[in-house]
Amino acid sequence: MKTVPIALFFAAAALLSGCGKSSPEIDALAGGAPARVRLATVRSLEFALPTESVGTVRPQRTAQVASKVMGAIAQMPVALGQRVRAGDLVARIDADEISARVAQARAQFNAARRDLERERDLLAKSASTAETVRDLEDRFAGAQAALREAEDMAGYTEVKAPFDGIISRKLADVGDLASPGLALVEVEASGQFQIEAPLPDSEAGRLGAGSAVTVIIPDRNTTFEGRIVEVSSSADPGAHTVMAKISVPAEVTVRSGEFARVLVNGAPVAALMVPASAVTAVGQIQRVFVAGDDNRAVLRLVRTGAVRDDLVEVLSGLDANERVVVAPPAGLREGQPLEIQR
User: Fold this and answer.
1) Looking at domain 69-93+157-188, which CATH architecture does it have?
2) pTM over 0.70
């Protein structure tokens, strides 16, 4: 095994030290020719970190339309997805007993009217009494009310759309038996939608009607700002969330039932931010060049976080107010002198 003579070792050390003086040769060994670079300062900025919730597009108005009478469905002139106007016929119920009740009530009404008119004529000729006329007037009023009730019941055999909208569900068809309270179709108001999403109860306390949130519809690649219109007064104890309803602007095209992502900005937190171009990657390793006190390049390994516009968050490897090299030139090395461009 060969050894380096002690005299030769000290001679090399003296040559490199040069009594504390610099020379082009030493600069070349320390990092090469100066690199022209631009610098940016590591800034500590406050950002409101978003919390994401999964929501669903729902119509602002929806109604399950049911019959008020029992009977077989004779007509149903609507189809799934069809647009309807308020008052359009949705279904007609075949109820013969109601028709019979109307006919009976009309016959009793006509008889009561004839009897009342006859007795009034007789009273005018002093051939009847006022008490008899009053009894017939009461009988006539009762027959009139019974006829009105029977006609209203007959009107219930026609089931109509409550407002302008679209038939979103069809729950019965011709020949089915309609029963009071049993929905036949579901109508959704057209052009009026909202997002229903569970928000973290930790954020619900500071959110109220009018608060702005960001909504993303992934299937349509659409992003828009929505406003909270309602927040539930109770929370889900299992999920620790509060249900909220968020408006959808009229110009945004959505469809009922679509998946939505809702981003709510949380409390502001401090983050160290640098220009995204200052961070370079070698494989999975991220690095940044810092300008040292002597304006020489110092290589730092960093770990990054969220990206906001042209800034990237640095989770570790840098301190606030340090100077980093923006868009470092190819071939920049540790220790290389830096010529700073203003």
Assistant:
1) Beta Barrel (2.40)
2) no
